[in-house]
């Protein structure tokens, strides 16, 4: 049963305030789960630091950076992007768990905005993602990574990462609504991980076979990584004649993010409504 719409939400502005208020409440609910599940919080904080040390020191001795430079500085933007993209699976699993256990059915019986549920999930992921990026950045600083272009370009890079993560969280929310349960959602990880590997996150794309190089150059992950390297002032600038997304990485990242939001926000809201029928 669907709860009636409150009279205060009859106008368009009222519906927007209703959605934002309920969405923030549900975002707080998602974040409060971390207090009841400390293992997830610890993993979220420790895993980024472990990845920095593991990838930085294992790969760092074997890979040469084009044009020279410290490999760990080359690597950090790639790790930021990898965490941003793979977080999609976590959102998918949380949404699928709520859907399969009847939590969303209980939400529908309450007088809350329909779109508040996906808004809450994506908002909570954005906040937890910011904390994870902060931990990873501290780990990067500890192993020698630096942002050489000053504070404002660095802030711009982190904002790009946050925007892409928010856009991808809507994609994850949609997948969580269409898969049957959390086990099906967990099986998506092997499909997401290659997306980050087939990019410039860890190695230059110039040495890849031609078909793979074209895919890697047009991979949204590559644009995000190239944008972060340019804003941070890290090594790995694209060569002359690079593909358009690598030559204009900030514009490409903004375009991919807005495209994802334009596609998955309405799809997610529609999928949530259909599950209640």
Structure, explained:
There is one protein chain. By secondary structure, the protein is an all-alpha fold. The protein has one domain. The chain has helices at residues 12-36, 38-59, 71-100, 103-108, 116-142, 151-178, 182-186, 189-197, 210-217, 220-232, 244-247, 249-275. Helix 2 crosses helix 5 (116-142), helix 6 (151-178) packs antiparallel against helix 10 (220-232) and helix 10 crosses helix 12 (249-275).
Give me a quick take on this structure.
By secondary structure, this protein is mainly α.
Keywords:
0% strand, single chain, 277 residues, mainly alpha, globular
Shape: globular
Oligomeric state of this protein: single chain
Number of strands: 0
Major sheet size, sense and barrel closure:
none
What is the average of the pLDDT values? 82
Derived structural class: mainly alpha
The value of Rg in angstroms is 20 Å
Q: Specify the number of helices.
A: 12
The portion of residues assigned to helices is over 70%
Indicate the proportion of strand residues: under 5%
Termini separation (Å)? 9 Å
Number of domains: 1
Q: In terms of per-residue confidence, which ranges show pLDDT below 50 for 5 or more consecutive residues?
A: none
Spell out the helices and strands N to C. HHHHHHHHHHHH
């Amino acid at each position: 049963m669907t709860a009636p719409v409150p009279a205060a939400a009859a106008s368009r502005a009222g519906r927007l305030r209703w959605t934002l208020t309920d969405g923030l409440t549900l975002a707080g609910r998602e974040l409060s789960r971390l207090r009841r599940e400390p293992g997830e919080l610890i993993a979220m904080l420790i895993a980024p630091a472990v990845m920095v040390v593991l990838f930085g020191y294992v790969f760092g001795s074997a890979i040469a950076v084009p044009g020279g430079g410290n490999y760990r500085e080359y690597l950090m933007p790639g790790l930021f992007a990898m965490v941003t993209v793979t977080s999609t699976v976590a959102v998918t699993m949380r949404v699928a768990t709520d859907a399969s256990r009847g939590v969303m059915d209980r939400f529908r019986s309450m007088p809350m905005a329909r779109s508040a549920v996906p808004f809450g999930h994506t908002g909570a992921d954005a906040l937890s993602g910011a904390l994870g990026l902060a931990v990873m950045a501290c780990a990067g600083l500890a192993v020698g990574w630096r942002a050489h272009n000053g504070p404002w370009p660095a802030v711009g890079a982190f904002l790009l990462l946050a925007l892409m993560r928010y856009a991808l969280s809507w994609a994850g929310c949609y997948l969580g609504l269409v898969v049957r349960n959390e086990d099906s959602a967990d099986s998506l990880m092997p499909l997401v991980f290659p997306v980050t590997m087939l990019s410039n996150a860890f190695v230059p794309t110039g040495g890849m076979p031609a078909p793979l190089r074209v895919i890697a150059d047009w991979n949204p992950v590559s644009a995000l990584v190239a944008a972060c390297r340019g804003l941070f002032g890290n090594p790995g600038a694209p060569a002359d004649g690079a593909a358009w997304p690598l030559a204009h990485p900030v514009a490409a990242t903004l375009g991919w993010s807005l495209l994802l939001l334009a596609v998955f926000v309405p799809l997610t809201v529609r999928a949530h409504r259909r599950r209640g029928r």
